[in-house]
Amino acid sequence: MEKSNFAQLDLLFNPHTVAVVGATNKIGKWGYDLMRVILKYRGERKVYPVNITETEILGVKAYKNINDIPEPVDFVVIVVPEMHVISVMQDCVKKGVRGAIVITAGFAELGEKGQEIQRELVRIAREGNIRMIGPNTMGHFSGTSGFSTLRYLLANKTDSGLSLISQSGNIGLYLMQRGLEEGISFAKFVGSGNEADTTLEDYLEYFGQDDDTKVIVLYVEGLRQGRRFFELAREITRKKPIVALKVGRTEAGTKAARSHTSALSGSDVIYDAMFKQCGVIRVNEIAELFYTTIALRYQPLMKGNRVAVLTRGGGFGVLASDACQKSGLGLPTLSAVTLDKLDKMLPPYWSHGNPVDMVANQENTYSCVQALLDDDNVDAVYCVAVTDEGSIVSGVRLDDLDDLSSSQRENMKQALEQRHKSDIQDLDDVLINIRKTQKPVVFCASIPSKTLYKSDTYIKLLQHNYLVHPTPEDGARVLSCMARYSNYLRSLK
Amino acid sequence: MFLNKTIAEAQKQGRTFLTEVESKSILEERGIQVVETKLAQTRDEALSLSKQMKFPVVLKIASQDIVHKSDVGGVKVGLNNESEVGAAYDSIMTSVREKRPEAVIQGVSVQKMARSGVDVIIGISKDPQFGPVAMFGLGGTLVEVLKDVSFRLIPLTEKDAREMIREIKGYSLLTGYRGSPPCDIKSLESLLLQVSKFVEDNPDIKEMDLNPVIVYQQGTMVVDARIVIEN
Asked: Which residue segments constitute the domains of chain B, with CATH numbers given?
């Protein structure tokens, strides 16, 4: 990307002076919510509401036209009804604006007439040297510069390095909300809308060069510049991972073809091959997209595909091993040294092999993880053994002591608190050491998530950027995606 | 250049594909091993060409109007002597004239019967988004049923060629299955790269099937080729 192009795209995510055309005081209107969000994040940024009838919006002086604003404006948010969009864009050109987002819908997505108006809109913007996001978009966001054109407060100031391009606004919002639930904000987001001027490929190129972006996340319905995407992705994936959810898997190749090759070349198999060829990690589900993104962001690269599985019981061991093998991962034999170490930490009846079944043992889980990581036969550890152990002794919980006499209750409370303190301390130490081994660890719950979410263990793991996956299959898929990406990087050498 | 001339000539005639003889000869020009194939315009020519090539031979209908030759009774294989060749020629002509009376017939192609090996398919199609795409798979008539194929965008790198061969489920058939000798996978990789280069140099190629390509212990052989061109 040329420097001037990069600067043009960069401005969309970090403008100095912003006008919001269509801002309003009317509660429930898009122009109200959006204005509120912009003001909340604005920081040093100057924001001017523009409304033909209202003189003050959310306490900020409003102007009738962008051209009445007494200083230069470099970015405009357009959230007026569609019949006014063209004339607002003409005003923007007159004002010398450099970037715009058109939230308004009612363009190419409606058919021929809408397409015509959209073409006119693009023509005006391009002639005026304005880069435009949308139309028909949920907005965009930069957590690094603190700028948002979303209707909702869905991200915080962050340097998480996660940048998301979504061809569906709803999916984008879902992912950001999902992130917030886990305490992780996206660094940059754009709902690409109709991609009339700037396309997914433009944003991809920009994120590829953007130092704030460490992992690129894509929700793709269909590419407009497939070849360009391929060339760009091939370069970018050498430096940072791209994870993509591409929908439309089930579409059959319907072309009337005269060769076997064409008959077999359905659009999805080509997408699949293309992603593989340029190192993009394709996932199949929205949860998998989120999990994989987080893992690729915070975990070290896997050096091979050999996984040690750690569980609290046979059932989870089988589920996890099956899921790993189905995802193309291998379960290696553990070294004698590792077996020795585990012998010292586990009861004598443990499984003595991989998967490591601790057999309902409550202690030393995280020290076992450490022992497995130290094994040269192991490229990653899959710990399918996360519980709320910090609050359990012999299956009794702090909130479940009613049956005891007051003195027994007091003793039990003390024991629980003691145990809780030492467990959490252990966990902290181990998690810090785990980071030093430069091997990934993926965690999975062995109790249902609602119970787990409240536990200190869960919170502690999150603080260290480890998600706890709800099912053995979820975590195995994430491990497989990590292995695929590092295999790809190795295959380039 | 010869290649462009063949394609351009066909385009000028309003045709959308090259005949088998044309397809093979432009592949051969690129140094790709193809089964020896010659056009016989008459029955006598078919007889004398088969004698020159040494039996067994194969006869196939040669017509710019017919893509699927087997479907019209236009293919006879394993012909061991002159009288079998003569009978095959007559049978092909009768059948094709009956089934496709409007087709312009150039004659028959006479081909050396290839030794057996592992049949694979190498194909090209054009994707509206991504342009030319290469396909590799286990060949023969079952390819559309088994769908054991892999794809890569063109141009292929060596890594692409290597991976697309290893990616198919039936890969072990190429490495020597149950005592059969291992195939020459290196040559197969080179062939994929040659095909990729060929398509890059000739953007007017729209679709192509090399099916089957026979892979031997040493080397490969393109037995049938079909090239569809832009018009």
From this structure: 8-16+116-229 (3.30.470.20), 36-112 (3.30.1490.20)
